[in-house]
Amino acid sequence: MRRMMVPIIGGLLAVIGVSTPIAAATAKPQATVHAHRVHVIVIDKMQYGPMPAGLHAGDSIEWVNRDIFEHSVTARDGRFDIDLKPGASMRTTAVAGTTAFFCKFHPGMTGTLVVK
């Protein structure tokens, strides 16, 4: 009878939130999960808007062209090459690391993404 009571009492304690030595020994550490966000970078007046702080791998970057000219967002390492007509937008997914980019139509337009 006593042997049957131990699992029952342990189960009841777990239900009400009290941890038993067995439950504590088998608990797994919680991993920190980053909720993916959407960051917007606006292209206007022949320049890329400010680069977002806190970019994480897997986040989305929405590139929006509010200029009167067609622009591109072209990664120097070839990772992405986006052409944006005036008023157009497109999304890419951030990849960890530092990526330099430029506009292939206006090479003086440059920027750098830093992704954790």
Number of domains: 2
Mean pLDDT: 83
CATH superfamily of the largest domain: Cupredoxins -  blue copper proteins
Pairing-aware structural class of the strands and helices?
A: alpha+beta
The number of helical elements comes to 2
- N-to-C series of helices and strands: HHEEEEEEEE
Number of strands: 8
- Architecture of the largest domain, according to CATH? Sandwich
Low-confidence stretches: 18-25
- What Rg, in angstroms, do the CA atoms define? 25 Å
Helical proportion? Answer: 10-25%
The level-1 CATH class of the largest domain: Mainly Beta
Widest sheet: strand ordering: 2-1-3-6
Structure description:
There is one protein chain. By secondary structure, the protein is α+β, with helices and mostly antiparallel strands. It is globular and about 50 Å long. Helices cover 17% and strands 35% of the residues. The chain is built from 2 helices and 8 strands. Mean pLDDT is 83; it is low at 18-25. The chain has helices at residues 2-15, 21-26; strands at residues 38-44, 47-48, 60-65, 71-75, 81-84, 89-93, 97-102, 110-115. The protein has 2 domains: 1-30, no CATH class; 38-115, Cupredoxins -  blue copper proteins (Immunoglobulin-like).
